[in-house]
Please model this.
Amino acid sequence: MSNNPHGPTRGLLLMVVAPSGVGKTSLTRRLVADHNDLHLSISATTREPRPGEHDGRDYHFVTRERFQEMIAQDAFLEWAEVYGNFYGSPRAPIMDALGRGESVLFDIDFQGAMKVHAQASQDSVLVYILPPSLAEMSRRLHARSQDSEEVIHRRLSRAKDEVADWERFDYVILNEDFDRAYSDLAHIYHAERQKRVRNPWIGNLVADLLKEEI
Ligand code: 5GP
Model:
């Protein structure tokens, strides 16, 4: 249960979308580490683990056959094909967290975020993280030397398409300085949790308050 002494709160689905190399992973992992009522949705994927990635922590690494089975069982809230691999958000842990009044953070791509939003528009909050410039994004992608020139070029042109859709997001954060961007993200989460519609217990509190003699 959410640990609000007054009554249940309604969790939110926080979707954080950013082009690769914008620092999204560091921002989202820190937000989850700092909030025990916020859980990271661990996606299933058919792509190979990268060095340092752990099954069950970064992703659930599954075969294509297993992924197809999960689609057939309606086990995903959304799924998508990204750069030739499949990625999906398992439904059960998300529903469990919401059932406890807790929130879920999604580190997913643009199309996935839009699909979740279409299914749960009241509960979803869409955040886009902007790189200071495409030149800076390109510099960071080269610096981490994970991708070929061709993949970097694809990531940059995809970023350009997505950024053009910035008005579909509730919030846009500029990640020029990590601490500043983290503070913006944490404030967004805190304010969204405080929204009246997510705190139905306020109605009872107000009713009691109005009964008080003055
Ligand atoms: P990567 O392979 O670099 O970890 O992720 C590639 C892209 O897939 C990223 O944009 C990431 O956010 C996205 N992604 C990861 N998990 C999911 C998911 O469950 N659903 C969707 N739609 N995209 C995902």
Q: What stands out?
A: Residues 154 and 190 are 35 Å apart (CA to CA). Residues 20, 43, 47, 78, 80, 82, 87-89, 107-109, 111-112 surround guanosine-5'-monophosphate (CB under 6 Å).
